[in-house]
Amino acid sequence: MAPVKLSDTEVEARLDTLPDWSRPGEEIQRTYRFKDFVEAMAFVAKVADRAEAVQHHPDILIRWNRVTLSLSTHDCGGISEKDFAFARDADAMAAGR
Amino acid sequence: MAPVKLSDTEVEARLDTLPDWSRPGEEIQRTYRFKDFVEAMAFVAKVADRAEAVQHHPDILIRWNRVTLSLSTHDCGGISEKDFAFARDADAMAAGR
After folding, report:
1. pTM for this structure?
2. Of A15, B9, B56, B59, which is the most buried if we count CB atoms within 10 A?
3. Chain B residues lying within 8 Å of A49, measured CB to CB
4. The predicted structure's pLDDT at residue B94
């Protein structure tokens, strides 16, 4: 089933449950901070494995101990539930769960 | 020995030998394109290993099959030989050498 673009109201409601995420335009974004580059890359490896598994690939920016994920859904030209599902997965991975 | 900031002329001379690299401000940058996300991540893993080995960490942006490396040297507040050395290493890794 093709992903459905969420309305602004729907996006805002979901962001309320994810306080570390923001919406700079037509994507949702969070920057994670780790102890060092090695820990940051360990997180990136997990994110990459998940991205391939679910075939939904965030943009990933690595700046030494910081990793920024940006999520949007090309198939719907905006933000969909897939982005929020991935955001929650990434938060769980960053928390070591 | 602390890295020395290169002059604009010195940076330009080195960029002449690295046509795929540009200089958007106080860093040098190249975007590599791969077959897919898996190949892009394989390159990122190599870059990350090298970065830790030489303790010089590029900013790394992954956008599915594209990887952008941005290099600058904090210790000198600009671009140094370390950046060009890493750029050449990364080019060799991307070429599978």
Report:
1. 0.96
2. B56
3. none
4. 96
